[in-house]
Specification:
The protein is of the alpha+beta class. The chain is built from nine helices and four strands, in the order H-H-E-H-H-E-H-H-H-E-H-E-H. It is globular and about 50 Å long.
Length: 196
């Protein structure tokens, strides 16, 4: 059975999409960010908890602070990407549940009254949303460079608070010269699927 999605869209989102390591200086606009979010916000999460939070690093001062917290190999591309986003999990996401889950507002207290439960749920579901965000960036015709090579505690202290756990940092923009490393192999279906 073939996929319903147009082959060009399949290529844009997956087959030809790559993690960019260099970018042009073409800016990423607020309108593009809005369009990305307006698409990816519909991706499912458990209880519609939607715990992903996005911090856009646009000012030169904030960019410099962030670059200093990146692993050495990630510093040049983070310094030059048109836009950098810090993706985090909101561990107090349950405060929004009465609005996000109006048919079951008691879920806030019934399931998420304890912080360790919220932290686990936020981690899983915000990470899921981070994947949607990467695909959304690609759908906007931009390249995403997701990274976990940074000082997590430092990023939390400089840009977030104790209620937000950093997940990843994503450089965003149009790919520049020599943006791609060679594509790495992928596992085949029989290497990842077990039927019971």
């Amino acid at each position: 059975m073939s996929l319903v999605l147009d082959p060009a869209a399949q290529d844009l989102l997956f087959r030809e999409a790559r993690t960019a390591n260099t970018f042009t200086d073409e800016p990423v606009t607020e309108e593009q960010v809005q369009a990305i979010y307006d698409l990816v916000k519909f991706g499912p999460t458990a209880f519609n908890q939607s715990p992903l939070r996005i911090t856009l690093v646009r000012s030169p001062e904030a960019r410099e602070r962030l670059v200093n917290l990146m692993a050495e190999g990630n510093q040049p591309k983070t310094a030059t990407a048109p836009l950098v986003a810090i993706l985090s999990a909101d561990n107090e996401f349950h405060d929004e549940l009465p609005a996000l889950l109006p048919h079951f507002p008691q879920a806030k207290d019934m399931f998420f009254s304890e912080r360790p439960v919220r932290e686990q749920a936020a981690l899983v579901n915000a990470t899921l949303q981070a994947g949607y965000f990467i695909v959304g960036v690609r759908a906007a015709g931009l390249a995403a460079g997701p990274m976990t090579g940074f000082d997590f505690a430092g990023v939390q202290k400089e840009f977030l608070d104790d209620d937000h756990t950093p997940l990843m940092i994503i450089n965003i923009g149009k790919p520049g010269e020599d943006a791609w490393f060679p594509r790495s192999p992928r596992l085949e279906l029989d290497e990842v699927i077990t039927t019971v």
